[in-house]
Structures are given as C-alpha cells and as structure tokens.
Amino acid sequence: MSAGSDTGDGFGTVHWPTEIRLKKEEKRLEVDFDDGRTFSYPAEFLRVVSPSAEVQGHNPSQKQTVAGRRHVGIMRLEPVGNYAIRIVFDDLHDSGIFTWKYLYEIGTEQDALWAEYLGELQAKGLSRDPRR
C-alpha cells in the first residue's frame, strides 16, 4: 500500500508515525509522519485539545475550555492498538485517546487551534496559569 493511501484501519488513518519522541524536560511531544512532516506539540496544547469526552463533551455545545495548564507535563505515553496513544499528563488527565489521524490533524491546524483556545480563555476571563 502506498504512503498516504487510506489503510482501512477503521480510524481513517492516512499518515502513520515513523518516530515518536517524548521530551519530558521540554514538556513536548514530537511526531514524525510517513509523509515527511514533523509536528512538535507542547504538552499544554495537547492537554487542552485532548480528544477525551471530559474536554470535548459528547457534542460541540459541551466542549470545555481547560484553563490553568501552562505548566502541565507528560508523564508517559501508552500505545493503544496500532492506531493511537494515550497520553498521561502530570495533572493525571489520561482519558484522551490520540489517534494518528487526530495527531496529524491537530499538527496541521496547531496555530489556528491555539489562537482559538487563547481567544476562548480571554472571552471567558480564564488564564493559562493555575489558580493559586
């Protein structure tokens, strides 16, 4: 099967990771994909766009704006089948299953998603900093 073709894995995976690097000290995850693209995701970004029901809700009107995660880190990654990883954050959030498709999509849309998140924080009077 050629790179970039739909594999029929049931999850819509088109681009597969070739290398995943957890940089704990930098609070960052880097993923290289089979089309040559590399994405570097800050832990805070991954935490606030987690695909979990806790963050995304069960429909768009239930989506939560997660504040106070400026300093969040990643404790570990856990494989989920051959299609995803579970990210365990140091705030103990671990219910998001990050599929390869989702990681690729948020990688390509990272700047827009981040700007949207910052706008939501501002509109709701929230902060990236934890409550004291």
UniProtKB/TrEMBL annotation:
Annotated coiled-coil segments of the chain: none
Domain of life of the organism encoding this protein: Bacteria
UniProt KW DNA-binding keyword: no
Record-annotated Gamma-butyrobetaine hydroxylase-like N-terminal domain positions: 20-104
MF annotations from Gene Ontology: metal ion binding
Keywords recorded for this protein, A-Z: Iron, Metal-binding
The protein's name: Gamma-butyrobetaine hydroxylase-like N-terminal domain-containing protein
